[in-house]
């Protein structure tokens, strides 16, 4: 069922699901994913309503599916109806708002998170990647940061086309990993600074396949 869902074969997914003698959360979630992947949003909603009970993964899946197809109001209704939201739930809803152009609503939602730690703040930075100002404000309020949050901020600046800010964040990092270097080199390539990207690449203490692919793709596209 999961294989056909990933292959976007809704007909086979539905047939297998119908033939199953017993179903659990995993199989129901797979059917919802199959509907979503095939673009059948109504089918996903019908599957959700038919479920005997809903787990946290199912709720989050529906929030993401509805947001993906622009049904942000319905996604928010699902989010509000949840008995309890996880960090993934908050992040999915923030992503939904941002992806559909509701940045202010996403900011408001972030302010409602009951406990904001490194993970929730880093998730918010990633959600606001297209809006570096919002990401920067969240980053500035973090009492603790790890490499993931620093890297997320570099990527957010790069996505917003603010390569100078990406470089500044990179320079301030207490420790860097291969993701940090790759994020900065990608930002430089995307800004058209191929010489700077090559210089960054040459300075890397270590490189992985993602780093090589990022640089090669960038140079090929320029």
From TrEMBL:
UniProt-recorded Gene Ontology molecular function terms: RNA binding
Superkingdom of source: Eukaryota
InterPro entries in the cross-refs: PPR_At4g14850-like_plant, PPR_rpt, TPR-like_helical_dom_sf
Residue stretches of each PPR repeat: 55-85, 86-120, 146-180
Transmembrane segments: none
Pfam families according to UniProt: PPR
Ion transport as UniProt keyword: no
Key word Repeat present: yes
Gene Ontology process terms (BP): RNA modification
SUPFAM superfamilies for the chain: TPR-like
Keywords linked to the UniProt accession: Repeat
PANTHER family attached to this UniProt entry: PENTATRICOPEPTIDE REPEAT-CONTAINING PROTEIN (PTHR47926)
Protein name: Pentacotripeptide-repeat region of PRORP domain-containing protein
């Amino acid at each position: 069922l999961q294989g056909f869902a990933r292959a976007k074969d809704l007909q086979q997914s539905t047939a297998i699901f119908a033939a199953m003698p017993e179903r659990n959360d995993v199989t129901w979630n797979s059917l919802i994913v199959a509907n979503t992947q095939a673009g059948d949003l109504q089918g996903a909603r019908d599957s959700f309503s038919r479920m005997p009970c809903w787990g946290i993964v199912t709720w989050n899946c529906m929030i993401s599916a509805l947001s993906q197809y622009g049904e942000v109001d319905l996604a928010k209704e699902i989010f509000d109806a949840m008995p309890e939201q996880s960090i993934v739930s908050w992040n999915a809803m923030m992503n939904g708002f941002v992806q559909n152009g509701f940045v202010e609503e996403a900011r408001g939602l972030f302010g409602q998170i009951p406990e904001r730690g490194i993970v929730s703040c880093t998730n918010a930075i990633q959600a606001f990647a297209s809006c570096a100002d919002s990401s920067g404000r969240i980053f500035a309020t973090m009492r603790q940061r790890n490499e993931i949050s620093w890297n997320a901020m570099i990527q957010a600046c790069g996505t917003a086309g603010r390569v100078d800010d990406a470089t500044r964040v990179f320079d301030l990092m207490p420790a860097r990993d291969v993701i940090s270097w790759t994020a900065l080199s990608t930002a430089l390539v995307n800004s058209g600074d191929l010489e700077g990207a090559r210089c960054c690449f040459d300075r890397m203490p270590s490189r992985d396949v993602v780093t090589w692919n990022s640089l090669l793709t960038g140079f090929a596209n320029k």
